Amino acid sequence: MSAHPTTARPTTVRTGTAGTTTRTTTGRFTFADWREEPVGAAGSTPRLARSTVVNAFAGGIEAAATSAAYTITYTGEGTGSYTGLELLSGAVDGRAGAFVLEQRGTFDADGTRCTFEVVAGSGSGGLAGLSGSGAFTYRHGDTSVAYEFGYTVG
Questions:
Q1: In the beta sheet, which residues pair with residue 154?
Q2: Pairing mode, strands 95-108 and 79-92
Q3: What secondary structure does DSSP assign to 81-113, as a single string?
Q4: Partners of 56 in beta bridges
Q5: How does pLDDT run across 69-86, given as a tens digit for each residue?
Q6: What gap in Å lies between CA 94 and CA 41, rounded to an integer?
Q7: DSSP secondary-structure letter at 33?
Q8: Could you tell me which residues are beta bridge partners of residue 34?
Q9: What digits encode the pLDDT tens for the residues 83-101?
Q10: pTM, whole model, 2 decimals?
């Protein structure tokens, strides 16, 4: 599955007091594959599950097929939270390389809210020294998800 066309806005740039340049970029991603299995008793609450996911990013982040692993806590019917790691190989605003995002989110009947942060030291290639964070909100029924990502490189 390929990513839907993006409605990314141009990258914005801010220079910090220490001379660092923070950029903010946007785009969209789609779920290409989702596999989930229970951990422990499947019929109880709270319950745990783990999932592996493949996403496709377009816009400021270009990554055709990511690799993600999540641990999910269901605290009720369709509600809970999750944490996970996602490996992205591709580019950020044209800089090629790879990096890992650490994610933390919650979900309910309305959708999913997530914040994420680059794992320190995980950037490679043109993304060596990458740091940053971002967020997204998914609403049930959406075919793609808008994200915002603020970062520095180097």
A1: none
A2: antiparallel
A3: EEEEEEEEEEEETTEEEEEEEEEEEEEETTEEE
A4: 30
A5: 999 999 998 999 999 999
A6: 45
A7: E
A8: 53
A9: 999 999 999 999 999 999 9
A10: 0.86
> Is cis: bond before 46, omega within 30 of 0?
yes
Burial class (CB in 10 A: 0-12, 13-18, 19+), 36: exposed
Which tokens is 28 given?
């969209």
Residues in the chain: 154
Give the position of tokens 């369709």. Answer: 78
Residue whose pair of structure tokens reads 């090629």 in the numeric block: 96
Alpha-carbon gap, residue 34 to 68, rounded angstroms: 9
The token duo for 142 is 């959406």
CA 64 to each of CA 34, 41, 47, 54: distance values in angstroms, whole numbers, following the listed order: 15, 35, 32, 9
